Amino acid sequence: MSEKHFPIQDNSINGYHETKKHTDLMFPYNVYPCTIPDDFPSVSLHWQDTMEIIYIKKGRGTAQADLSVFEVQAGDIILAPPGHLHGLRHIHGIRMEYENIIFDMTFLGSGVIDLCSQKYLIPLLRNELKLPVYISPKDACYEQISACLDNADMLCDRRPSGYELEVKADMMKLFSILFRMADPADQVHPVPANIDRLKSILIFIEENFQRPLTVEEAADVCGYSASHFMRWFRQVTGTSFIRYLNQFRLEKAFLELKNTDKTVLEISHETGFDNLSNFNRLFKKQFQMTPRELRPS
After folding, report:
1. What integer is the mean pLDDT of 184-208?
2. Same domain (yes/no): 173, 200
3. pLDDT at site 191
4. What is the 3-state secondary structure (H, E, C) of the chain?
5. What is the pLDDT of residue 194?
6. Pair 159, 30 in one domain
7. Structural domains counted in the chain
8. pTM above 0.85, yes or no
9. With 80 as the cut, is the pLDDT of residue 15 above it?
């Protein structure tokens, strides 16, 4: 497990709490093929109200699930249940292709009053059950889990008659395996206070990154002194608050440079940098190119 945590931003995310609807109400299951850094430099550390499964197909990268960070490669699977923090980042010089599988828990029957929903799905939604978040080809049940995902992929691609029923069956089987993999000692799993505090700080950054921010202001969000906040933030993210904030601002600037015609100076100011030279220096350090080199000629 790597020690590097990361801040990241993706223009499909509405802040750190993703509220974008990915699924159809009648068949709430979608698969998005993505590539980092071709499609975007990284995927924001965020959470949403749907289930998300990240299935690495090619290359290598870094994934974060709540406060744990993993270096992932082809074949690895990351599980992000509703309400749990997760994100992706590329390793410099290495492309990573993956599938983003997103579905509403009602797809599995969380809205139905029966034994399965009461015993498994509703407790999972309440964060009372803990499933494995990182599954690799070394795990004993990996072949069964990956077979469920691969078969669902094939069905969604070919769409034979009745494919929706089999996709649902694949996901039900996948989750039955995940529940068997879970450590019984971990089944009662209240959300750590650190995660709730980190979510509050992420929201604070999202809402205020365009203006000057101080450690003291961020500390107030958590009710900590500045010195305690700096130690706590480094413990849960692996970096300092100021460095995290700057990296977040640079990710915002990256997307603005790719997707708008604004000048470099305008973008630097709008993303919280009051010194263009400093912005250019930090941008090149993070992305190995200058802002002007990012834009096509």
Report:
1. 76
2. no
3. 54
4. CCCCCCCCCCCCCCCCEECCCCCCCCCCEEEEEEEECCCCCEEEEEEECCEEEEEEEEEEEEEEECCEEEEEECCCEEEECCCCCEEEEECCCCCEEEEEEEECHHHHCCCCCCHHHHHHHHHHHCCCCCCCCEECCCCCCHHHHHHHHHHHHHHHHHCCCCHHHHHHHHHHHHHHHHHHHCCHHHCCCCCCHHHHHHHHHHHHHHHHCCCCCCHHHHHHHHCCCHHHHHHHHHHHHCCCHHHHHHHHHHHHHHHHHHHCCCCHHHHHHHCCCCCHHHHHHHHHHHHCCCHHHHCCC
5. 81
6. yes
7. 2
8. no
9. no
Residue 122 domain-assigned (yes or no): yes
Residue 235 in domain = yes
Are 132 and 214 members of one domain? no
Domain CATH number, residue 213? 1.10.10.60
Residue range 62-86: mean pLDDT, rounded? 92
pLDDT level of residue 106 (50, 70, 90 thresholds): confident
Domain hosting residue 262, numbered range: 193-294
- pLDDT (tens digit per residue) in 252-295: 999 899 889 999 999 999 999 999 999 999 999 888 889 999 88
